Amino acid sequence: MIFAVPTEGRGRGRGAQARLYAAVRAAILDGRLQAGARLPATRVLAQESGVARQTVVQVYERLIDEGYATGRVGAGTFVSVGLPTACSVPLPAIPPPPPPPPEPVGSAWVRRALAAGRETWESDRPAYDFRPGVPDWEIFPHVRWRRLLARRWREAGCAPALGRYGDPGGYRPLREALAGYLARARGVRCTPEQVVVVSGSQQALDLLARVCLDPGDAAALEEPGYPPARAVLQAAGARLVPLPVDAAGLVVGALPPANEAPRLVYVTPSHQYPTGVTLALARRLQLLAWAAAAGTLVVEDDYDSELRYAGPPLPALQGLDERGGVAYVGSCSSVLFPPLRVGWIVAPPALVAPLVAAKWLADRQTPTLDQQVLADFISGGDLGRHLRRARTLYGARRAALVAAVGRSLPSCRLGGEAAGLQTPLHLPPGTDEGAVVLEASVRGVGVYPLGPCYGTGPAAPGLLLGYCALDEPAIDEGVRRLGEALAVVAVVARGARLS
Fold first, then answer.
1. What average pLDDT score do residues 396-401 get?
2. 350 plus 477 within the same structural domain
3. DSSP for 374-407?
4. Domain span at 461
5. Given this model, what pLDDT does residue 1 score?
6. What is the pTM of this model?
7. Are the beta carbons of 206 and 358 closer than 8 angstroms?
């Protein structure tokens, strides 16, 4: 082969594509590939270069667009005639590849945590960002929150609470406010003593895993399911038991028999992540009966169920539990704003002391000032008013998304119910969801694949679209651009199959 891709460029992704493009372009400009010469077939070059065939197709398309090559239907791709045999214009510098990551240092937990991965968060957000799980910061009652915060600061000199560590289980007035609110809004049955305040739902899951699981214990979770929950259980050394999900939610009949039961089952019954379906009442009762017979703890993650746009929010699974075998998890991230790291566990009485001990060892306590302001926000009725407004606005935005998908993405299908901050978009069979994500990003659209929600087996192609942080015109334009991206991916895929 006249040109070669550097070894570090092999594989998938934009880095491999840039290196292959630079190698072919350099061979054209310095005369190693003469004018009129036929470039290798995409399948051949992909095999010799160790890259995906789709990468070669995209490189050839770029060379044709920029005038370095021409394509002839049925004949192949050829170096353009009339180019000089040498060029004084310097090639763009190809940054050296990053050094390989060092071997993990530390305990087995560290190795498991690194293997589980984490979500990446870009500093430059796309113009039309459909990131899941993000509420609209603009509709949050900033002025009211600021006044509550200022009042607490004014009172700080007379109140000793901010001058010392607090109860690791949580600020008592917040625990009382949460117990009352969850009873009214979610049908949760608890006392303030059962409420353990934590730093977001992610810490809630981490503490429950620490308290309830030893390495090697079995833990069941939905498939597909919430990737950060899977990461927590993997880091804890649990043996994961995936459970299928269908249109009625978790398939409870797939649970192991009671004598082989996992120690913990993680579920999102009121708005399953990521499918958006609701666990049917018959299955809720079946799950609770199975857990009671097996002695298994059910962890209910109720992450955004207050945001339901067709009828009232469904009562929590915990409210149906007569045994005290459900740990109910919630947080403010989805309904208020993500950086407010205040969450809660409504724990069975026997787990309260272990969880409080684990919380104290983890970080002593959740910041007192945040807890105080949130307690005032709930007790003063501000949370209820904000949720009523959010449900109206977000419901209209979901309707705008449904209409936009119908116009611009007729080959796709939205899933889930009219609830929550995001909904799945099912792509046509065989679509490369990764290629759609990349092509959409070129058009200023941020979309996120469903693939990471699957821990085992191939996933049907799809995206998870968060819509609440975008207004209706932005939703319409973003979906239109996504439709353009999907069309380009489909054309490239057809071309690759024909070549």
1. 96
2. no
3. HHHHHHTTHHHHHHHHHHHHHHHHHHHHHHHHHH
4. 126-134+385-498
5. 61
6. 0.77
7. no
